[in-house]
Design brief:
By secondary structure, the protein is of the alpha/beta class. Strands 2-8-7-6-5-3-4 form a seven-stranded mixed sheet, with helices on both faces. The longest helix is centred in the first third of the chain and has 21 residues. The model has no long low-confidence stretch (mean pLDDT about 95).
């Protein structure tokens, strides 16, 4: 049996999502751009999904663009807006703890197009709106910041930054991949211009997501057909979009109860550990869904391997760097390149499908390993 505690990397599909996708696979296989009956049926389903997601986020239906996931959403927003508006300025702001799909896009714009990027690093464990305000320049055209960190669960000051940017012309992009499905997210209320989300983080299928984009002009990343109102070419992945829509509806209908349950899991884990032979890598504001924890003098690679052999799925950080020898760039930003935390820390991430009993079994196994 596998006890799954790597939900920040991906989440299992629920039965309702599988059922919704199966129905589309069997009966709704038309191309949404076709004008015959099957095409119109598919197009109707596509419109209904777009409308549902827009209603949940309290935004206009047209502002939702279906993508292949968070990476495409981040690339489209950052690269698309920067290149379309470089005549207004070539300065961008982001943080050093972003996902690689943001950091590498920024590097690409620096190296290929001469943009200048300011990377804000945590000060005393936090990145503040005041830092963003101080980094703003007259030629700053875009600020990109994640809502919740995928390795530590830390919450960034999105609302405060949105307020700061009301007094500046720079657009605001938020990578909300780790927050959508876990909390209410209302882009317009938060002053967000672009917001990226990925279905497989909230029990939807992999390979599909959405980008919220307000009326600001940006260049499309993909060129071809006229799908997505000419903002994202390629035939829409209707099966996965339906699965994503179902998953988001399900999570939104249980947000409060899910949050209480996951908080209980989080607290039960730490209470069961007892003692002080561990440390937590997090700021004052963080999601209960993620625990980034270090055990002194215990190599995380050994701990991960032994937990895997015992049937527990955890990770040492972002799944996008798994299998490499590179240390966590997030923890490196917090502690420095040679800090012991980089080789001692693991990430445990919960979903509402986990149980308190499973948490107790995980703690028991960890104690067995680090004590043996």
């Amino acid at each position: 049996m596998i006890y799954y505690f790597d939900n920040a990397a991906t989440t299992p599909l629920t039965s309702t999502v599988i059922s919704a996708m199966t129905e589309v696979m069997a009966d709704n296989y038309g191309n949404p751009s076709s004008i015959h009956r099957l095409g119109r049926q598919a197009n109707k389903t596509l419109r209904e999904c777009r409308q549902t997601i827009a209603e949940l986020l309290k935004v206009k239906e047209r502002s939702i663009i279906f993508t292949s996931g968070g990476t495409e959403g981040n690339n489209t927003a950052i690269q698309g807006y920067a290149l379309a508006n470089q005549d207004k300025g070539k300065h961008l702001i982001t943080t050093s703890i972003e996902h690689h799909s943001v950091l590498k896009t920024m590097s690409y714009l620096e190296e290929r197009f001469g943009f200048e990027v300011t990377y804000l690093s945590p000060q005393n464990g936090q990145i503040t709106a005041q830092e963003v305000k101080q980094a703003l320049r007259e030629d700053t055209i875009l600020v990109s910041m994640m809502a919740a960190n995928n390795e530590t669960g830390d919450l960034l000051p999105i609302q405060e930054v949105g307020q700061v940017l009301k007094e500046h012309r720079a657009a605001f992009h938020v990578d909300a991949v780790q927050l959508v499905g876990k909390a209410l997210v209302e882009p317009e209320e938060l002053g967000i211009d672009f917001l990226s989300a990925s279905a497989h983080k909230f029990h939807g299928p992999k390979g599909v997501g959405f980008l919220y984009a307000n009326s600001l002009h940006f260049d499309p990343l993909l060129h071809g057909g006229d799908q997505e109102d000419q903002r994202r070419a390629s035939t829409e992945n209707l099966i996965s979009i339906v699965g994503m829509c179902q998953a988001l509806k399900d999570t939104y209908s249980h947000l409060e109860s899910n949050s209480k349950h996951i908080t209980k899991l989080h607290d039960s884990f730490l209470e069961s550990l007892e003692g002080d032979n561990y440390y937590l890598n997090k700021s004052k504001q963080s999601l209960p869904h993620v625990i980034n924890i270090g055990f002194p003098a215990c190599q995380n690679s050994i701990l991960l391997t032994r937990l895997d052999l015992a049937g527990f799925a955890i990770s040492t950080g972002s799944a996008c760097t798994a299998g490499t020898v590179e240390p966590s760039h997030v923890l490196e930003a917090y502690y420095g390149k040679n800090a012991k935390e980089l080789s001692e820390s693991i990430r445990i991430s919960f979903s509402e499908q986990n149980t308190v009993d499973e948490v107790h079994l995980l703690v028991k196994e960890i104690k067995k390993i680090i004590g043996g």
